[in-house]
Amino acid sequence: MKFAIAALLASTSAIRIGTQGKGCVSKGFAAEGFAALDTDHSGSLSYDEIGTGLEELAKALDHKITAEEWAWLKATGEKIDSKTPGSVDEKEFFLFSNAVFKHFDLCELAREAEKEMKHARKTCVSKDMAEAGFEHLDTNHNGSLSYQEIEAGLKELAAALHHTLTADEWAWIKATGTKIDKKNPGKVDKKEFYRFANAVFRHFDLCELAREEEAEHSLATVEDAPCVSMKQSDEVFHQVDTNGNGQISKKELTVAVTAYLKENHIHPTKAQVKGFTKAATADAGADHQLNPVEFNSLANQVCAYIES
């Protein structure tokens, strides 16, 4: 999958050799570009990889690099890449990217792209969504994910998008996962999975998909939410449970319901009284008493009846 223009901008970043004023491209943004261009995952960039990034940047800006511009790029690159010529590390790429963006007057463009990337990073995969994914993949319920479980999840995601992961994509996934899974290699915890999920969704430009999924999940959660929460029913439970034994007897329930009906001038029909008694008896079970959970169930049945 192609990386976004924002990443392309980072890929060939710009401005500042040595200490010539304030930098145009931050180290973090340049690191994003470095990772995008390091297609063989060697930890360094060849001149060919950098050249590809420069051409992609120029194409995104509807510009064709001239012979004079290539000459400047080559001369500037050689000045910076002095440690191991032909193998550019992250620090050297940071200096080169700043030099390029400064020379071609692209600083403002770089800053705007970085803002967009930071915003996307913050709002890509939420902790709640990552946790839901973690629980889904943790098939043996041991509280951590194996590489096999994560691989199964990635294949499931790719299949849902009608995509087959390539060898290069698997290599990137493996390299990224290895960087994140440092504490107990082979056992990915929730925090590590949250970071990994965000890295994957950002790299494959799936943040919008993640937001849509979360919006649907949030809507479903609201729709599936009980009419009366446990917190709400617990507050009433403690008022009805007059002897404080943690159970509501038939007598306690009858007294409370009668008082409520009288206070609110409600006159239920015989059928309604019969239906309520049947529901209360079923929830109370063999001990003929209601515990907090059973009382919540009864409260929700009453609420559903009222709203129907």
Fold and architecture overview:
The protein has 308 residues and is an all-alpha fold. It has three domains: 5-116, Recoverin, domain 1, CATH 1.10.238; 127-224, Recoverin, domain 1; 230-307, Recoverin, domain 1. Helix content is 66%, strand content 0%. The chain is built from 15 helices and no strands. The protein has helices spanning 5-11, 27-37, 47-60, 67-80, 90-103, 107-122, 127-137, 147-160, 167-180, 190-203, 207-224, 230-240, 250-263, 270-284, 292-307. Helix 7 packs across helix 10 (190-203) and helix 9 runs antiparallel to helix 10. The radius of gyration is 31 Å and the shape is elongated. The relative contact order is 0.08.
CATH class of the largest domain: Mainly Alpha
Determine the mean pLDDT: 82
Looking at the structure, what is the overall shape?
elongated
Number of domain modules:
3
Name the poorly predicted regions: 1-21, 219-223
CATH names the topology of the largest domain as: Recoverin, domain 1
Element-by-element helix/strand order:
HHHHHHHHHHHHHHH
Number of helices: 15
Q: Structural class of the helices, strands and pairings?
A: mainly alpha
Distance between the termini: 50 Å
Radius of gyration: 31 Å
Largest sheet: number of strands, sense, barrel closure: none
Total count of strands: 0
The proportion of residues in beta strands is: under 5%
**Helix content range:** 55-70%
CATH structural architecture of the largest domain: Orthogonal Bundle
